[in-house]
Amino acid sequence: RHPYVVQFHNAADEPESAKVVTVPIDDNTKYSISEYRDRLYSEIAKRKRELQRARKEIRKGSRVKDGGGVHKEEGRGGGVVLRS
Q: What is the rounded CA–CA span in Å between residue 28 and residue 68?
């Protein structure tokens, strides 16, 4: 750990993710703190809208059974569960 940030390290209070987190902002472009924050929040809001739209489509599709008697439902964690 870098000595500059070691004072902020608290292993008991640091969540971990099984997924790789990537920031969709170019590392080679310099932004002010407020510009970076605004761009980051904008990307988060955009992703949230995309997920909400996808979930809405899944719910809409789950109301209609296809010809095979199988329909989709949103499962826990946002996954899709097929039911017959």
A: 51
pTM reported for the whole predicted model? 0.51
* CA 59 from centroid of its chain's CA atoms: 18
Output the pLDDT for position 84. 43
State the pLDDT at residue 53.
93
DSSP string of the chain?
--TTTGGG--GGG----SSPP---S-TTS---HHHHHHHHHHHHHHHHHHHHHHHHHHHHHHTS--TTS-EEEE-GGG-EEEE-
Q: Which two tokens stand for residue 64?
A: 């209609």
- Angstrom distance (rounded) from CA 26 to CA 23: 8
Average pLDDT value over all residues in the chain: 80
| Average pLDDT estimate for 31-45 | 94
Dist. CA 65–CA 67, nearest whole Å: 7
